[in-house]
Amino acid sequence: MPSKTKVDLYAAIRRDVRAGMSNRALQRKYGVGFRTVKAAMESVWPEPRKQLPPRKTRLDAFKPVIDQMLRADLDAPRKQRHTVKRIFDRLLDEHGAVEVTYSMVRAYVAARRPQIPIEAGRGPLNAFIPQTHMPGAEAEVDFGDVTIRLAGEQVKVYLFSMRLSCSGKAVHRIFASCGQEAFFEGHVHALSVLGGVPCGKVRYDNLRAAVARVLGLSRARVENERWTAFRSHYGIESMYCRPGLEGAHEKGGVEGQIGWFRRNHLVPVPEVDSLAELNAMVERWDTEDDDRRIRSRPRTIGEYSPSNARCCSRCRTSRSRQAGCSISGWTDTRRSVSVRTAIRCPWG
Description:
Blueprint: H1 6-18, H2 23-30, H3 34-42, H4 63-73, H5 84-95, H6 102-112, H7 115-119, E1 139-150, E2 153-164, E3 170-175, H8 180-194, E4 201-204, E5 211-214, E6 221-223, H9 225-234, E7 237-240, H10 245-248, H11 252-265, E8 271-272, H12 275-292, H13 313-316, H14 319-323
Parallel strand pairs: 1-4, 1-8, 4-7
Antiparallel strand pairs: 1-2, 2-3, 5-6
Helix pairs in contact: 1-3, 5-6
């Protein structure tokens, strides 16, 4: 039987207290002391463990020197900044740090290098900001590679995915490559299935099909001319993520969606005679996934009227929330065609 965590222990103690068990009986039953029982009765969350002070190391005396070198690098040319080896060599030559090892210096520099610009007020502070999305406003697009058996031969193909950020509805298409033709065809298919174009921004990687050049650390991009003409025709407002792993977090919804789709529908490796046959299966899977997805069933405006039946469990708890659930679709008059989203409960 797995051992209880401290939260489980507190929950069990509080349950027995409500049943009328005395403090002494609780101590005997759970093998704890008086203070533990008292703490469990006062709070459902255990107090965090006290952090022990950091252990002293042979590098402590030289940490201010390393920090000074890293601060000097803020004003130095990019190609003439201290490497870990150069810092280690200077410690040996200029400060006699013979007891300091290279691994100590490397670990300390790896931790301090990103902190020095922030302390000097020159670097961005990494922070987490919860995202909220309006219905039909934003979407994310990405490619993911998958392996299939095509006509008896194992080949790698590419899964195009467009995911609506609010509802989570995703449209997929599989292509032999992830080139510009597949990129455009995937958009045409996704927009036809969704029945419109998101009225806000669509997030993209810096893929060659859309971006010709990344301009420094800014969000500005030199776009491929064919892509500019394509998105202008459909009225797509693009937003490009930061290069590398940090940019992947900016469109984590579609990144996770591709992985989920691959694990749930492409395991075991599918065997097909053509990509057309596989894409017919993908369309069927998308329909089945949409039926299972929370808030997937389109509603009519009348179903969300305040005088009608309540639409979700949260709305049952508050008349004011129930009254706030009347929501109509939107029509974007800037588009060449009228675009209307599915109407869903905002509290669901």
